């Protein structure tokens, strides 16, 4: 089907198609031209976990393409609060929608939604599983940022620091990056929050290199980009959190400076956790030239527009024919 559940479904051809559509829709995303290609279509947006970027950018993407949006958030405001199953919920809502976007706290649950749905389902994050639309916007941003510096993703060295165990954006991005050639990953995480073996093997089997580092400074040293993540506290019991050594290690300006990495491309899926002193990205890097976190969020709108176009079988020609200058 045309579901998007995992980055493992993507190949270089589909990746290029999505990135080309993301370029094409740029003026539509910016609001300078209007598009009605999805006129009459309805998005069913189901978020059973908190979200700012993913939900609002998916919904804005659908609206910018001329469609309409229905939405429910949390477990309290749908009949799942009365014990309705994923199967029944999905079958019902898919009967009201042309495409569904689903976020759910359990790994594998969005695939269950897809099985029962009569329309395409897009995974907007399933527990500590995957977050494919995030990986697409991350790779799109990384590609553009490196190209602006005369570099390519092929052969790049990418530092990834933070919670590598529960961070689904890391899992999806590392798998997606295997479509490039010769990536070197430099990893640094708390000892209790290391990358799952499954992801390590997936990357290694495809010929890419992983280097385990002992500090954030060591990880960013010589890297072209750094991808920092927060500790996914909502996925840990209090017990695990208490024993996990997650304090300190905020990636900041001083660490980048000391590692000679003050010009590195700086990425983070966001949100940054401003309430805890633990593995994350400090806001004191925000005026460094490589800061790309808001390029990621802006590109997210364009990438999610492209994802809808592919899921709904809309060509670039159909988009152009349904686009007119704002008057
Ligand atoms: N990056 C990301 O998924 O953000 P939200 O949880 O706010 O959607």
Automatic annotation (TrEMBL):
Biological-process GO terms, alphabetical: 'de novo' pyrimidine nucleobase biosynthetic process; 'de novo' UMP biosynthetic process; amino acid metabolic process
Residues annotated as domain Aspartate/ornithine carbamoyltransferase Asp/Orn-binding: 155-309
A single MF term (Gene Ontology): amino acid binding
E.C. numbers: 2.1.3.2
Gene3D superfamilies referenced in this protein's UniProt entry, alphabetically: Aspartate/ornithine carbamoyltransferase (3.40.50.1370)
Catalyzed reactions per annotation: carbamoyl phosphate + L-aspartate = N-carbamoyl-L-aspartate + phosphate + H(+)
Official protein name in the record: Aspartate carbamoyltransferase
Organism of provenance: Acidipropionibacterium virtanenii
Gene transcribed to yield this protein: pyrB
